[in-house]
């Protein structure tokens, strides 16, 4: 039963499937659907006058000085005039001296596990000591594209067509990479054979910690303790802790597993985690790893979709799945400190009609780095967001025994709450969102931006998701209360507003909300992961079927005249998305992940690009690039 003041509702999607959730009964006033600050930009105009404005106003006032590019699909990259891009590392580049040169035809799992992985997504850069010319690069490797890795495979039947060796190579090519970088002659380069270099794969031994560790639902034949697991999967976005460790996020696992989910003992939980709406055994892993068969190990799925903490400075350390942060399709884990020193982690569940979460640690961060804070993320409270029509956000705790999270509703411990985080959030009145992806605090202002990619199954808009059939996505801005010591990210309530409604401003049916000076190249759809430069400007990577047919990297101010005025900065090679804009060198260098170049082609023979090698005998290779201004100024200025 839902909590008091809520009513039972049902959500349905385009496959005719439904699920219950608890909804507040209050109505949403129309005025709450539009951002107050965003429509009152620079001119003192009313919302009505801006909506009626037909002539774009002058673009001076945006702090972004680069000449906006035109979005185009090409085999290579497109950058603004005066900028250069350089590939730092590619899929298959050796991390160690004893690794042979990249050759997909002769790859083995052992070789792949000592090379830079495939389809890099989240990036992080951590300086090494006080030396500005050394640092550690961490990259997630989300999933394989077998049909773009080898010839002779097709997109939809690769699982059947691959050899067992190729299947094992895909398992060794995902996860994460730690690579030392050194700067020489102004350029960052990987250090082969560095003591820090490391690969994390789908078979790396890991520890399970926190309230769900040891739970019967996490116990398997291979691990009757429920505290040890092999590998991490579907690593999309992530975060960096204040003590210098990586948080890598597992964004779903249903496509990995094979077997009949409906016959599994925990079939109701599997359905709530979209095993009824996901490709089955997509890459054939059950052939070489029987633990991914639901018949063999029905509890194995519950050991994924967590946040994994990795210490990049200690290559001998064991990665840890932190169950206190909940289990769902984790898109990111951005951190910030509350005024009292506790760490706050922002977490989005990247599915239609899923939720936005926040974790607040019990204890403050201690001096002494990773060693002193090794298990800080095991104790704390996970909250879920409820967006109200009055512009207030309430954080609802997901704690066993509180409200509806009781045995009567199937929850017998905090472990139950965390293993079925979605089911718990359904009952407490959380707001179902339009695919929350990027979810990160601005390091300059302390406000928090949420990128919501899209939801074309939405029929009933609400204040935080104000468009039905939301095909284009939107951005929200959250405002924690201000204190004398900065914004309190651990507070129970925030203010919030809509920052932008994505789509083409020239198409009335899109019902967009951007700055009226947005150009025909500047608008975008499907906002995905986001980043901030050192001045607090927002950088947005898109990921979806853009009306233009291509993804890009956009930037906008969040303060002043240029608020919500996006400009297109970068277009990746055909078929690729760009990921995780990361600024280093005090903003003079932008690191960017280029994921799945050529994706969309049915086979390698049909790929529209062979970037970055442009060698007809080699496949396209996901890579990390470093972008700089030729003149040496900060990126964007």
Automatic annotation (TrEMBL):
Start and end residues of each stretch annotated as Disordered: 206-226
Taxonomic path: Bacteria, Pseudomonadati, Pseudomonadota, Alphaproteobacteria, Hyphomonadales
Organism: Hyphomonas oceanitis SCH89
Name listed for the protein in its UniProt record: dTDP-glucose 4,6-dehydratase
């Amino acid at each position: 039963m839902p909590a008091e003041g809520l009513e039972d509702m049902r959500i349905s999607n385009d496959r005719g499937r439904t699920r219950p959730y608890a909804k507040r009964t209050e109505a949403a006033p129309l005025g709450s659907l539009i951002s107050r600050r965003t429509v009152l930009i620079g001119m003192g105009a009313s919302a009505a006058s801006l909506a009626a404005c037909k002539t774009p106003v002058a673009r001076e006032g945006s702090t972004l000085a680069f000449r906006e590019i035109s979005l185009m699909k090409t085999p290579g990259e497109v950058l603004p005039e005066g900028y250069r891009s350089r590939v730092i590392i590619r899929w298959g580049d050796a991390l160690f001296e004893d690794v042979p040169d990249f050759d997909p035809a002769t790859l083995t799992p052992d070789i792949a596990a000592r090379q830079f992985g495939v389809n890099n997504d989240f990036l992080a850069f951590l300086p090494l000591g006080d030396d500005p010319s050394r640092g550690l690069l961490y990259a997630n490797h989300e999933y394989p594209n077998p049909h773009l890795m080898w010839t002779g495979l097709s997109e939809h039947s690769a699982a059947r067509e691959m050899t067992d060796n190729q299947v094992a190579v895909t398992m060794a090519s995902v996860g994460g990479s730690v690579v030392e970088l050194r700067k020489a002659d102004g350029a960052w380069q990987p250090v082969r054979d560095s003591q820090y270099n490391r690969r994390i794969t789908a078979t790396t031994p890991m520890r399970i910690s926190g309230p769900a560790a040891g739970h019967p639902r996490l116990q398997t034949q291979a691990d009757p303790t429920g505290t040890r697991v092999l590998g991490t999967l579907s690593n999309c976005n992530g975060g960096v802790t204040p003590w210098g460790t990586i948080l890598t996020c597992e964004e779903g696992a249903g496509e990995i597993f094979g077997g009949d989910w409906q016959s599994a003992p925990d079939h109701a939980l599997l359905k709530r985690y979209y095993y009824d709406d996901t490709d089955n055994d997509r890459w054939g892993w059950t052939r070489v790893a029987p633990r991914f068969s639901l018949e063999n190990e029905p509890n194995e799925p519950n050991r994924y979709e967590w946040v994994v903490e990795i210490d990049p400075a200690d290559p001998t350390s064991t990665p840890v799945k932190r169950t206190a942060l909940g289990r769902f399709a984790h898109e990111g884990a951005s951190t910030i400190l509350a005024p009292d020193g506790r760490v706050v982690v922002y977490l989005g569940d990247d599915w239609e009609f899923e939720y936005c979460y926040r974790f607040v640690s019990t204890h403050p961060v201690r001096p002494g780095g990773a060693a002193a804070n090794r298990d800080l993320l095991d104790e704390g409270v996970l909250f879920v967001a409820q967006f109200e029509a009055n512009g207030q956000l309430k954080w609802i705790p997901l704690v066993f025994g509180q409200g509806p999270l009781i045995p009567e509703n199937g929850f017998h411990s905090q472990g139950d709450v965390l293993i079925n985080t979605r089911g718990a959030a359904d009952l407490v009145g959380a707001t179902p969102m339009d695919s929350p992806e990027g979810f990160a605090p601005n390091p300059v202002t302390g406000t928090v931006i949420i990128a919501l990619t899209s939801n074309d199954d939405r029929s009933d808009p609400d204040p935080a998701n104000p468009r039905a059939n939301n095909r284009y996505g939107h951005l929200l801005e959250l405002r924690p209360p201000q204190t004398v010591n900065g914004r309190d990210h651990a507070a129970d309530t925030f203010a919030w507003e809509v920052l932008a409604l994505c789509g083409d401003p020239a198409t009335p049916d899109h019902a967009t909300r951007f700055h009226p000076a947005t150009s025909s190249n500047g608008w975008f759809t499907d906002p995905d992961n986001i980043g901030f430069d050192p001045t607090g400007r927002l950088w947005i990577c898109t990921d979806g079927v853009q009306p233009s047919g291509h993804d890009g990297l956009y930037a906008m101010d969040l303060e002043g005249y240029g608020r919500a005025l996006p400009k297109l900065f970068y277009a990746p090679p055909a078929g690729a998305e760009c990921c995780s804009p990361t600024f280093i060198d005090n903003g003079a260098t932008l690191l960017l992940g280029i994921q799945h170049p050529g994706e969309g082609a049915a086979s390698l023979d049909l790929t529209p690009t062979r970037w970055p090698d442009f060698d007809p005998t080699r496949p396209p290779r996901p890579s990390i690039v470093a972008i700089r201004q030729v003149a040496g100024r900060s990126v964007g200025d």
